[in-house]
C-alpha cells in the first residue's frame, strides 16, 4: 500500500521544490502543492512536478462566488490533481459547482477550520462554537454538496468520520512528538491522526525543514 503521507512542498523556489520532491519521491504517497508554490510557478510548475509520477494534491483553497470558483477549477486544465481544496465556508452552491467543474478523477475536499485557528480565533470571526461543532457542521455541508471529503485537524477527524464513513479525510497540522509546532494550533501526531481516521496526512516542515527530508519522512512513516 502506498504511504498516506503527502509532503507539502511549500516554497516558491522551483529548484528547491524539485530537490525536495526528488528526495522524498520513493517514500511519499504524494506531493501537496499550495499557494506559495502555485503563485510563483503556476500550472507549468505543477505539471513539471507531476512528471515525477506521484499523485498531486493541489491546495488552492478556492473561496469565491460559485461562477468564479467553477471557472477557476476549469482553468486548471490540463492539470488533473488527485485532490483539490476549496473552502467549505464558500457555501453549498460554490461547493456543488466546484465539484461539477472538476475532472472526474479529482477528489474535491472542503477546508473546514484551518489548523492554525483555535477557539478564540473562531470567536473573533463570529463563530460561537468550538472547532468540533464547526467541523461537523461543515462536513455535513460538504457531504450534502457531493464533495469527496474535508480537511480538518486530527482532533476532529474521529467525530467527522463517524458521521461520514466513506468520506475522504485530509489531516494537516501533523507534528511528530519532538517537532516545533510553529503557526499551527490544533496539532496531532502522525500515528494519532491515522488512528483517529485520517485518509491522508499533509506534512510540511517536519519533513522539508529537516537536513535530510527523506530520512525524516521515513522516520515518521515508521511510526504509522
Ligand atoms: O489545506 C491544507 O492543506 C491545510 C489546511 C489546514 O487547515 N492547515 C494546513 O496547515 N494546511 C496545509 O498543510 C501544510 C502544513 O504544513 P506544515 O505546518 O509545515 O506541516 C501547509 O501547506 C498548509 O497550507
Automatic annotation (TrEMBL):
Stored Gene3D superfamilies: Aldolase class I
| Gene label | pyrF
Write the Enzyme Commission number(s) for this entry: 4.1.1.23
- CDD domains, alphabetically? OMP_decarboxylase_like (cd04725)
Which named protein is this?
Orotidine 5'-phosphate decarboxylase
Which residues are substrate-binding? 10, 32, 59-68, 115, 175, 184, 204-205
Role played: Catalyzes the decarboxylation of orotidine 5'-monophosphate (OMP) to uridine 5'-monophosphate (UMP).
Kindly list the organism's lineage: Bacteria, Pseudomonadati, Pseudomonadota, Alphaproteobacteria, Sphingomonadales
Q: What is the originating organism of this protein?
A: Sphingomonas brevis
Pathway where this protein functions: Pyrimidine metabolism; UMP biosynthesis via de novo pathway; UMP from orotate: step 2/2
HAMAP family linked: OMPdecase_type1_B
Amino acid at each position: 500500500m502506498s504511504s498516506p503521507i503527502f509532503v507539502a512542498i511549500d516554497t516558491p523556489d522551483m529548484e528547491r521544490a524539485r530537490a525536495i520532491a526528488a528526495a522524498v519521491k520513493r517514500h511519499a504517497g504524494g506531493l501537496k502543492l499550495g499557494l506559495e508554490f502555485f503563485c510563483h510557478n503556476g500550472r507549468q510548475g505543477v505539471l513539471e512536478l507531476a512528471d515525477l509520477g506521484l499523485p498531486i494534491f493541489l491546495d488552492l483553497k478556492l473561496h469565491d462566488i460559485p461562477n468564479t470558483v467553477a471557472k477557476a477549477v476549469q482553468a486548471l486544465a490540463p492539470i488533473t490533481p488527485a485532490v483539490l481544496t476549496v473552502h467549505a465556508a464558500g457555501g453549498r452552491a460554490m461547493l456543488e459547482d466546484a465539484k461539477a467543474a472538476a475532472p472526474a478523477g479529482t477528489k474535491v475536499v472542503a477546508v473546514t477550520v484551518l489548523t492554525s485557528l483555535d477557539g478564540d480565533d473562531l470567536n473573533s470571526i463570529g463563530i460561537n462554537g468550538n472547532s468540533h461543532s464547526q467541523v461537523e457542521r461543515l462536513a455535513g455541508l460538504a457531504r450534502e454538496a457531493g464533495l469527496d471529503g474535508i480537511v480538518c485537524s486530527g482532533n476532529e477527524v474521529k467525530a467527522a468520520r463517524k458521521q461520514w464513513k466513506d468520506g475522504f479525510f485530509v489531516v494537516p497540522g501533523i507534528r511528530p512528538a519532538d517537532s516545533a509546532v510553529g503557526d499551527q494550533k490544533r496539532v496531532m501526531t502522525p500515528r494519532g491522526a491515522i488512528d483517529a481516521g485520517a485518509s491522508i496526512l499533509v506534512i510540511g516542515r517536519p519533513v522539508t525543514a529537516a537536513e535530510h527530508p527523506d530520512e525524516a519522512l521515513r522516520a515518521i512513516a515508521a511510526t504509522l
